[in-house]
TrEMBL record:
Residues 44-63 are annotated as: Disordered. It comes from Haptolina brevifila. InterPro entries: AB_hydrolase_fold. Residues 53-63 have a biased composition (Polar residues). This is Uncharacterized protein.
Length: 139
């Protein structure tokens, strides 16, 4: 669907956003790293879209077209502007829940006091997963 292109920043956007990495990595290494991450992310998104293609009645503007999405950002992320990026994604993804962990770094789940299961429950993700698993078991 056309909205997918809005979700992922382009390589130039990531290069600009990665000022901290640019200070410690040679330009070629940084560019390679970002391209590889984008390529892997694209492969994952494309395989998911192929496995679960939208129906002809698919309406990307409908909130029910999107599963619940939890967006986590480390407020002290020195590698990428995670709070800005999650705010951008929250504006694009209907029904997304955004949480900024003020003292967390780029690896915001490492050593965090975050109760991820609780946050997933509050965002509706766990209920959505349970329903999908039940649907698969019935078919």
């Amino acid at each position: 669907p056309p909205f997918i292109s809005k979700l992922l920043p382009g390589p130039q956007d990531l290069l600009r956003a990665s000022a901290a990495l640019a200070e410690v990595l040679p330009p070629g290494a940084l560019e390679w790293r970002l391209r590889e991450h984008l390529a892997e992310g694209s492969r994952l998104v494309n395989s998911e879209l192929e496995a679960n293609p939208p129906t002809s009645s698919y309406d990307a503007s409908s909130p029910s077209a999107f599963p619940p999405t939890l967006l986590l950002a480390g407020g002290a992320d020195l590698i990428l502007p995670s709070p800005d990026e999650t705010a951008r994604l929250e504006a694009i993804l209907p029904g997304a829940t955004r949480k900024v962990l003020p003292f967390a770094s780029h690896a915001c789940l490492d050593g965090s006091e975050l109760n991820l299961r609780l946050e997933m429950e509050l965002s509706g993700m766990l209920l959505h997963i349970r329903v999908k698993n039940r649907e698969k078991a019935v078919t």
